[in-house]
Amino acid sequence: MHGPIMPADQFFPDLPEQAWRDHRETLVPDHLGAEDAMVHVAMQTWLLRSGGRTILVDTGVGNDKARPAVAAWDHLQLDYLGNLERAGVRPEDVDLVVNTHLHVDHVGWNTRLVDGVWVPTFPNATYLMPKADFDFWNPANNPDIAGGVNENVFEDSVAPVHAAGQVRLWETSHPIDAHLRLEAAPGHTPGSGVVKLHSGPDRALFAGDLLHTPLQVTHPEHNSCFCEDPAQARWTRRRLLGWAVDNTALVLPAHFSGHSALEVEDMGSGFAIRKWAPFARY
To answer: Is residue 205's pLDDT more than 90?
Structure first.
């Protein structure tokens, strides 16, 4: 699922209009509409096989879910499970689900509707969720959720998995296996995390919502309107982009369409795109 989501000046209210013009050649058409200045994003899951296990990083928006704040996501009917099957994965094959954070567009396929009841989509999986987000997005703790983009999300996509005994909450860091580790990356949400991969000489950063547009590579000081702690989000973005530079790591944000992943280089006050991954355009 990919396409336009919000006007650029609403999604990134403090990002100068000139920056969008200066980088138009990089952004259009995969990340910015040519005519309407709408930011384009993808909703996607990264499928990993590591240590003999099948791992999903984030689970998109989900089907059948009441999303009153975002009409385009309300009661969706998408072939997500068919796409997984075409990649060679059935729901029962999944061993681990990593939710980098608990926003609406990262937990949707945690569950599916069966006979009117939300049940875990992946019956044999452990779901790794950040404890800080689990607490923050619980409406019992946060009455401000009502009317926002995360309305109903805890109830239909988080609580049913927890009730089934399939959730493992983590804090600070969590080793997944010899090659993968979850690390806290707060700012966008209190519990936001990233997955770092170390495999032989290769390094990768499954970056969650560290970035929503390539402009945040060149302008890391600018946040989306959805960042809960703007100052911390800026600090985290610079820190992790610096790690990616130091380790020549492939950066895989949750929402980049086009070639989806990139390597970055240090430019002093900011960073630059060194090269895009050789993935087919999405």
So the answer is: yes
